[in-house]
Amino acid sequence: MRLIIDMDDVLADTSEYLRKVFYQKTGKLFKDDQLIGIRIESLLTQEEKDILDAIYKRKEFFENVPVMKGAVSVVERLWSIYDVYIVSSAIQYPFSLEAKVNWMVKHFPFFNLDRLVLCGDKRIVKGDIMIDDNDFNLLPFQGRKILFNSLHNSQDTRFERVRSWKEIEALLCIEETAKFI
Ligand SMILES: [Mg+2]
After folding, report:
1. Fewer CB atoms inside 10 A, N or C side of the chain?
2. pTM value?
3. What is the pLDDT of residue 177?
4. Ligand 1: distance of its center to the CA of 10 in Å?
């Protein structure tokens, strides 16, 4: 069974890290309640958007994003049960391509890089289960759609939702191993 896992805001705590880096650069700190249902980009002035863009264009940004809590051990378990692919839209920021490969090697050393897919549009992706934080990736997907909770999607009720890697473990490891008992 093929399981498709997203990177930013699923494996990697990207939006939280961006909020922190943006604060360090500008002194402007966005609170949780300002980010419910929206992306930080939509709250910025043009000058701030340029700062954000400059942050995204540094490959160090993607290399330094922390791993989402619990992700490493659960992906390692899933790796032994499913045909796991990590699929990330990265073409928009070409510097992020190398950074994302380095990030996977650093944090997920057991992972076979042949299963890392860095792409543009995810509509090309086929599989049985997709875990992603963006509705525009889940909507065209043909299999089971699992939304990883994030402030920007917290009001979306259209998908099965998980709030942590612990929940993914409970949902996908136990459910799948139970079939063999
Ligand atoms: Mg994402």
Report:
1. C
2. 0.94
3. 63
4. 6
Count of Cβ atoms closer than 10 Å to residue 153 Cβ: 21
The answer to whether residue 8 is catalytic is yes
| Ligand 1 mean position, distance from CA 134 (Å) | 6
**What's the average model confidence in pLDDT over 71-97?**
94
CA of 177 to the centre of ligand 1 (A): 27
pLDDT at residue 94, rounded to an integer: 87
Q: CA–CA separation, 174 vs 169, rounded Å?
A: 7
- Closest by Cα among 115, 118, 74, 73 to 92: 118
Which is catalytic among the residues 6, 9, 13, 133?
6
Per-domain residue ranges for the chain? 2-12+67-178, 14-64
The model's confidence at residue 122, banded by pLDDT at 50, 70 and 90, is very high
Distance CA 134, CA 105 (A): 24
Distance of CA 88 from the midpoint of ligand 1 (Å): 7
The one catalytic residue among 8, 9, 13, 132: 8
Alpha-carbon dihedral angle through residues 141, 147, 151, 154, given to the nearest 10 degrees: 100
* H/E run at residue 115: none
What CATH fold (topology level) applies to the domain 2-12+67-178? Rossmann fold (3.40.50)
For Cα atoms 21, 24, 28, give the angle at the middle one, nearest 5 degrees.
100
